[in-house]
Design goal:
Layout (H helix, E strand, L loop, with lengths): L1 H12 L10 H29 L25 H15 L5 H26 L8 H21 L5 E9 L5 E9 L3 E3 L7 E3 L2 H4 L10 H22 L5 H20 L2 H7 L10 H19 L8 H18 L6 H4 L1 H24 L11 H7 L4 H21 L5
Antiparallel strand pairs: 1-2, 3-4
Length: 406
């Protein structure tokens, strides 16, 4: 909204300072400040409201230290994250940008699914919440919509062989390269690091490449489902999901910034994705919301994000990574999510296998997801969270290094 107001004032009246508002960096800085303020100031009011309405967490007794004390802690705190993200975005971002539209839809859609799950748990007193198949269906629908939009929408392009000519005044004078529709993505650690999904179907002839959406859309669905569930599983102890996600999203912000900047994409020899720089406004608002929420979610937590927050976080991270063509970096960047999900799959799979073969189920971990394994071993949850944050930072550094290491 404010973007269009200042754009109008600049065109009509040459208002001093209005042109400054056109810069993405300036709006991104404002976005993170707004989101931090909203999350910290109004977040407290939301927590008090949730307490007043007795919207508290119903904790299953897993025998973990300090678990019973968390019963009754307000949940649905993901509403703080959603509100603190969307308000700055609606005020500061270019709302006709297809990538911003996709992320707003993702936030609202996954927030709705998570809210429904939390609502059933709290008000219907059903600890299982929304049935798993309905959660997966919601994730599949989102992935289908995102994949179809990115493939078919005319505004989603990349610039092939982009290069820039810069004047002595450090202004971009000319940008060379043809904007094309493409389903290429980035393969980390390789010199010729572009993979075209249409190659998987290209063996059937050049005309078959027109049906590359048959490959691309299912991959998008898989990524959205996997990352949102990974974030959901990570949300198990105070501050773990919010802190880890803030690190991941900040890293994606760096990639979005260089991918949407013709000078840096040219220098780093990476894909230049026109209009993707606008993502930085959304990402900074999202980081601010996560950090602001962490103020109340750090141990001992005054509020839990619930599925309202965790599913939304995972969905947003997945969609951002896909938009900037960095989805193959997810196993590295989102290594914490990956480890949490893998620990559950190993635990469940091994238990079923041993029960079928030996008549008695055995376990690999003391408890899954893996953060509970360390709790059972006697580590305090603050130590676990801090160490997981350190690992997340190291993985983020490795991910950023892939810009130059090939």
């Amino acid at each position: 909204m404010l973007y269009y107001l200042f754009e109008y004032l600049e065109k009509q009246y040459q208002l001093p300072g209005a042109s400054l508002f056109q810069f993405t960096t300036f709006r991104a800085a404002m976005a993170i400040l707004f989101s931090l303020m909203i999350a910290t100031v109004y977040g407290k009011r939301i927590i008090l409201f949730l307490q007043k309405k007795q919207i508290g967490e119903s904790v299953r007794d897993l025998g973990l230290e300090g678990q019973k004390q968390k019963a009754g802690t307000p949940t649905m705190g993901g509403l703080i994250i959603i509100m603190a993200t969307l308000i700055p975005v609606l005020l500061l971002a270019k709302l006709d940008n297809i990538y911003i539209i996709l992320l707003i839809v993702t936030t609202l859609w996954m927030g709705f699914i998570g809210f429904t799950d939390d609502y059933i748990k709290v008000f219907k007193k059903d600890k299982e919440g929304l049935k798993g198949r309905f959660k997966v269906l919601g994730q599949v629908v989102l992935g289908l919509g995102v994949g179809a939009t990115l493939y078919f929408h005319p505004g989603v392009t990349m610039r092939e062989d982009s290069s820039s000519i810069i004047t002595e005044q450090l202004q971009v004078q000319d940008v060379q390269g043809l904007e094309i529709k493409s389903v290429k993505t980035t393969v980390p650690f390789f010199k010729n690091n572009e993979l075209d999904y249409s190659d998987f179907i290209g063996w059937a002839g050049e005309s078959a490449r027109d049906y590359a959406w048959l490959i691309f859309i299912p991959i998008v669905i898989l990524i959205v489902t996997a990352v949102s569930n990974g974030a959901n599983l990570t949300d198990g102890i105070d501050g773990l999901a919010a802190g880890t996600s803030a690190i991941i999203v900040f890293t994606l912000g760096i990639f979005a910034w260089v991918s949407g900047n013709v000078i840096f994409s040219d220098y780093l020899d990476i894909m230049f994705i026109p209009n993707s720089g606008e993502l930085v406004v959304f990402i900074t608002a999202f980081v601010g919301a996560l950090v602001g929420f962490l103020w109340y979610n750090a141990f001992p937590a005054q509020v839990f994000m619930g599925d309202t927050g965790s599913l939304t976080i995972g969905g947003i991270i997945a969609v951002i990574a896909i938009i900037i063509r960095k989805e193959l970096l997810i196993p590295v960047l989102c290594g914490i999510f990956f480890a949490e999900s893998l620990s559950v799959m190993i635990q469940v799979g091994y238990f079923k296998y041993t029960k079928k073969k030996f008549g008695e189920g055995k376990r690999v971990f003391l408890m899954s997801p893996i953060h509970h394994h360390y709790q059972v071993k006697g580590y305090h949850e603050s130590k676990i969270v801090t160490r997981f944050w350190i690992i997340a930072i190291l993985l983020a550094v490795i991910t950023i290094v892939t810009l130059k290491v090939r």
